Every structure is written in C-alpha cells, then in structure tokens.
Amino acid sequence: MTPRTTDWWRHAAIYQVYPRSFADGNGDGIGDLVGVRSRLDYLQRLGIEAIWFSPWYLTPMADAGYDVTDFRQIDPRFGTLAEAEKLITEAHERGIRIIVDVVPNHVSNEHAWFTAALNAAPGSPERDLFWFREGRGENGELPPNEWQSIFGGSAWTRVPDGQWYLHLFAPEQPDLNWRNPLVRAEYEDILRFWFDRGVDGIRVDSAAMCSKDPALPDYDHSVFPDPHPYVDLDENHDIYRGWRAVADSYAEPRALIGEVWLADAARFAQYLRADELHSAFNFDFLGCSWDAAALRAVIDQTLAAHAGVGAPSTWVLSNHDVTRHVTRYGRPDTSTAAGIRQYNPVVDEDLGRRRARAAALLTMALPGAVYIYQGEELGLPEVEDIPADRRDDPIYHRTNGEDPGRDGCRVPLPWNGTKEPYGFSPAGAASPWLPQPAAWAQLSAAAQDTDPHSMLSLYRQVLARRAAEPALGDGPMQWLDSVPNVLAFTRGENFTCIVNLSDTPVQLPDHAQILVSSQPLSQAVLPIDTSVWLRTTA
C-alpha cells in the first residue's frame, strides 16, 4: 500500500484501536500489543492506512488508560516498549502508519510529579505543576469553587494538609498547570520520544481544555459561558504552536490530530491554522441524526470551517466514548445528543445496521480523512446489558449507576468461534475483561470473512474502491439536485455518491457503472436507507 501523498492525514482511512479490547495475545483477558501485531495482516487486508492507538502507557487504569503515570513506558498489561517499537516497524512494513494518544490536560495521581507534589508543602514548585488551592469556608472545608467533574461530582479533591487539587475528570487524574514552563517542555519532549521511534502522528486528547483561567471563577453550569474558564482559552494556541514546531522539525513532518469539542465553528477552526494542529475530529458529524437536511448542513458547515484555514475535514461515526452507531441509528432519535448512553432503549438493530452500511459509503465518499472505530467494520452494536459488577467505567461508578458509562462500546472484539472469548484470547485464557454477548458468534470476523454480503466484506470493498479512486480522499465535492431526503454529490468528473434517507425507493440517474452499494440493487432503483457509488457517464 503506497500513500497517495506525504500529507497522508488529509485523506487517510484511519482505524482506531482500543488496546484493551482489540486482541489478547497472552491470555489474561486483556488486549495487548502482541495481539495487535497478530492482526496486522487483517488490518492491511481491510485497507486502512493508519492506526490510532488509544493510550498504551503505564497507568493504574482508573480511566481506561487516560490516567497516565509515564508516557515513556508501555503498561505491562499491554506489553513492553520493545514490543511497541516492533509493532511500529511491522505496521510500516505493511504501509500502515501509527498514531498514538497523548493526554495533555492531566496525568495519573501516581505520576512522579503528583507524588512529589503531595509530599511537598503548599506553594512549592512541585505543587505549581498542578492546580492546588486553599478551600473556602471557615476552615477551608469547601472546594475552592463549584466546578463539577465531567465524570460527575466535584472537580476538587482535598489532600491531608487541607489544600484541594483540581481534576476535571476523575480524582485520579489531576489537571496540569500549563502556565508552568516545565509542563510545556515535558510534553514537547514526550512528542520527540515517540516521533524518534517512528510514530507518524499524535492524537491530542481533550485538546481545548489544557488552559484554565487562573482566577478559577465560578459560572452558571446550566449554560455554556462565553468566555469559559477552562474550555477554549486563547493560551491553548501557543501550546500547539510549540507542538507544531516539534512535528515540523522532522524530515517527514508528523501529524497532530486534535480532539476538539467546540460548538463554535470559527473557534474550532483556529486550532487548525497552518502553525497549529493538522486536523481535528468532526464531532458534529458523529453526533448528527440520520436525516438528510441535518447531514447536509453539517457537511457544509464542516467543509466551510476547514476551507477557511486550509485544513482537511475528518469524518467519524463511532469511537470509544459514544454509543456504537449501529445501535444509535436503530433508535427513534438517532442523534448522539439523545442516545449517547441509555439503559435498554428501544432499538431496531436491523434498521440500525442497514443505516450503518449506508453511512459507511457516505462517510468514505466525503472530502478528507475517515476514522473507523474497531469493530465498526463488523457491524457491532452497543452492549447495553453489562452486569453492574462487571462495569469498569468511572462514569458509571461516580454517578452511582445513573449513567451506564462507555463500557458498552468497549467490549472485546469477536474474531472467531461460537462462544466467548470468540478468539479474542487464546484457548484456556482468562475471561475477557468485559463480557461478550452470545449473539456475537455470527458477527465474528471469521463468520463474516467469506460472506460477500457481510459488513466486513462491504468495508473491504469500499476501502479498496476509495483507495483506487483518484477523486476520493482530500479534494472538492459538488452537491447535485435531488428529490427530498436524498443526498447526492459528485467527486471529480465521473464519480457520484447517492444516499436515500427518504421513506420511498428512488430511481438512479443515468450511469455507466455501479461501483459499490450498501444493499443489493435491482432495476436501477435505490432502496430506502441505502447508498450507492456510481461511475457516471462522461
């Protein structure tokens, strides 16, 4: 597989690996790097061009590895640094690039810096690396302000000497003080550490949250304040200019890809200026309902925002934090706003899978890069009946179970066989860290491998066609006139994508060839909830 340009992030099909749940090589019920290496041929055959790894670093695993103790060590549950280096080499031999996750907002409470801060006095240089403050109240018994953790409860935890420290996520994830130059220097060195080992890109977790207003002002939590005291502060941009200088210092520039959750398209685009991040995830598209007008509006807004700064768009349907889209598309309300995490909602899984197939063709025909979350190519649904004693997500525990958390999209993949662990682990291994449904036997990679109508076969076909079509990936698109609730657009001179989101079949236009369709077609009619790629007549 040969990349089409050195600016691979502008067009690549990128596959997200959540290491704990991809493949278990040593039999402990937890995915690892040996397991990933054993499946590189599968990923090559699938047709992906890069792998993004969720954190694989040393961690107590208080938040699925996003609580990092040491960015320069691989967690023993996943393997060793030598195995990571071998994986990078073996992936490159297959033409697959590697992206690793870096978490700048916080570290683990077991990180050496935080341990030193706890052992140091208030006002010390060690504590200045974090956000330690005195409490309110007569004896400092109240938190410094009323900020709430994204995972539920207060964003502050008190230490034995009476001070409090800030954690916008779990208490085990203390926030770093990016006003301290040591923090900036450390992270730039972390980037060099991985770039020197051949990593091609960095995915930046919670990229818009690093900086905080030093006054730590309270705000009305019922509305999104403008300006916000810790989301999208202008100081963030200086951080990423420093990171971009590091990335650009290599003979083949490395990519910086941001997780930027912002409603304001203009503010979002500022992170993608020529001297900052190369690209960012498109959460508006991920959360959009299965509705033609809504999808077209999001696509137009996305392309316009990116065009203003010359950055490529990205398209994603699922990831490790949201309900899998096979399930979401089968609900009465198909947006993530309504369906991100629910207990046993009404789901038409057949409808959801049909729409997911159609969405795959839409997504991969749009200009820019596309991200595929592991198991998406198998059509895996959300697992919503995980027993309480098996749930792992801190969101579930910090909300006392009111929020089921994100475990349902993180269940280990089924590779083969008729019962758990479905080839995720070798024979005789420990049970997977999260339980796999009995119905997943029919969804395993092996079960779908030779079925020409399976989701896996569809993804292989679409990715191969996408790589072969010069007009796909980065570049322009043009909307075509169409009947209501049908999306139709061209890429290049003779490629057309049509998506039928209406409640009736529609007639296809004149065409020279059907390249691929999400459902079987007959008599040049496009069924409901179906997409098609056409070679149009000259």
Automatic annotation (TrEMBL):
Q: Which GO terms describe its molecular function?
A: hydrolase activity
Respond yes or no to whether keyword tRNA processing is given for this record.
Answer: no
InterPro entries hit by this protein? GH (IPR017853), GH13_cat_dom (IPR006047), O16G_dom_2 (IPR045857)
Q: Does the keyword Hydrolase apply?
A: yes
Enumerate the spans annotated as Glycosyl hydrolase family 13 catalytic domain: 16-410
What's in the keyword line of the UniProt record?
Hydrolase
- Show the PANTHER family listed in the entry: ALPHA-AMYLASE FAMILY MEMBER (PTHR10357), NEUTRAL AND BASIC AMINO ACID TRANSPORT PROTEIN RBAT (PTHR10357:SF179)
Which family is it part of? Belongs to the glycosyl hydrolase 13 family.
Protein name per Swiss-Prot or TrEMBL: Glycoside hydrolase family 13 protein
The species this protein was found in? Streptomyces enissocaesilis
